[in-house]
């Protein structure tokens, strides 16, 4: 006959075993739950890390593009400033050479060639004012009259006056009646050459800039 103590012992064993199984089951369920949460958390962290790295890469690339752009703009600005300086120096050098040229004997040949280009004044009848440097009027007035007479202009039509501005050399012919002016001065020749000078200097500096890159 089974005693009460034996029954209690058996019940205790059964209860203990059941509790162990339940605890084991709960533990497994918790482990699976935690594994899922850990995996989910790891996925989120990985996504966050990936986003941080991607954003950092994008910021770095944007910064790189910004620096390159600023570098190119700075380079272009420097080229423009250098171009302006070179053009100014080039023109100053041309003016200096022109001033020396007008004191040479070959300047007379230049004046003859200049008047030869005024074929539109052939047989002109209106009065004309010839503007020149005062020293050129003193030295070349008779020569200019002769050259203009050769193309059909009458001496009586001609009046010589000192140019109001520094024309360097050459001459300006004006018709007060028609308010017409033909500028054949050396100053105008140099100014009209400025665009070509800028083009040449810009091309040269551009090649240097490309070489530096």
Which labels suit this protein?
213 residues, 4 strands, single chain, alpha+beta
Average of per-residue pLDDT values: 77
User: Strand share of the residues?
Assistant: 5-15%
Major sheet, described briefly?
4 strands, mixed
Continuous helix count? 5
Task: Describe this entry's structure for a reader.
Strands 2-1-3-4 form a 4-stranded mixed beta sheet. Helices cover 71% and strands 10% of the residues. Helix 1 runs antiparallel to helix 4 and helix 1 runs antiparallel to helix 5. The protein is α+β, with helices and mostly antiparallel strands and 213 residues long. The chain contains 5 helices and 4 strands; from the N terminus they run ααβαβββαα. The termini are far apart. The longest helix has 98 residues, at 4-101.
Summarize the entry for a quick read:
By secondary structure, this protein is of the alpha+beta class. Helices cover 71% and strands 10% of the residues. The termini are far apart.
């Amino acid at each position: 006959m089974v005693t009460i103590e034996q029954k209690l012992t058996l019940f205790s064993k059964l209860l203990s075993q059941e509790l162990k199984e339940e605890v084991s089951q709960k533990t497994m369920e918790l482990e699976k739950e935690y594994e899922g949460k850990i995996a989910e958390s790891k996925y989120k962290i990985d996504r966050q890390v990936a986003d941080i790295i991607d954003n950092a890469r994008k910021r770095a690339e944007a910064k790189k593009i910004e620096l390159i752009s600023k570098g190119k703009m700075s380079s272009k600005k420097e080229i423009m400033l250098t171009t302006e300086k070179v053009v100014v120096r080039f023109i100053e050098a041309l003016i200096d050479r022109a001033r020396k040229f007008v004191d040479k004997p070959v300047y007379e040949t230049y004046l003859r060639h200049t008047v030869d280009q005024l074929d539109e004044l052939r047989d002109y009848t209106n009065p004309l004012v010839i503007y020149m440097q005062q020293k050129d009027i003193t030295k070349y007035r008779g020569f200019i009259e002769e050259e203009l007479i050769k193309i059909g202009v009458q001496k009586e039509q001609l009046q010589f006056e000192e140019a109001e501005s520094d024309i360097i050399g050459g001459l300006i012919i004006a018709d007060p009646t028609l308010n017409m002016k033909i500028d054949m001065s050396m100053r105008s020749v140099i100014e009209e050459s400025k665009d070509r000078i800028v083009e040449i200097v810009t091309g040269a500096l551009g090649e240097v800039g490309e070489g530096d890159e």
